[in-house]
Amino acid sequence: MINRIRELRGERGWSQADLAERLDVSRQTVNAIETGKYDPSLPLAFKIARLFGLSIESIFEPEPQAATPMVSRHPME
Amino acid sequence: MINRIRELRGERGWSQADLAERLDVSRQTVNAIETGKYDPSLPLAFKIARLFGLSIESIFEPEPQAATPMVSRHPME
DNA sequence: GGAACATGTCAAGCACGCTTTACATCCTAA
DNA sequence: TTAGGATGTAAAGCGTGCTTGACATGTTCC
Which residue ranges run through the membrane (chains A, B) (predicted)? Predict the structure, then answer.
């Protein structure tokens, strides 16, 4: 999942700590999401979208494509 | 987090198992999300929205309001 | 040089998202 | 009446989302 959070935060001149406070999460959480360590929960994604006044779809984008594996998704059936 | 999944699924005449298969998750996951036991991950929310051809915002809605607790969120600081 | 801030990262711990297996109930069809 | 589908729920297990605390680095400003 790719996101534009760092860009949106930068436009507003906020530090990761500033954003974390506005979202009521830890600074490490903001950093982990920006650096792609993990995706936010759906409720947090809503908070982020509302804070920036944008839709979730305009901030987050599912991975280019988690290519369908060469093996069956339902082996031995 | 409130969602309209059961309604959208019903309109299409799909069982929970049908929907689960289309989303590539277990039937219990669909059931748990419909019955409000937990919220889907952000990637699954995207899958759901795309399957129904709707925006995430038009399917999910953050709780009416998780009322601000009477106690400080940052005690002893 | 030293203080202060911004960012990145690690570790431990807890709660949640999702899995498989299994069982119970309800409803409809034959 | 029995079989089958649809739904609800439970337990155990694994990985992720988020927390606090801590430390390292780079930058800026005195």
Answer: none
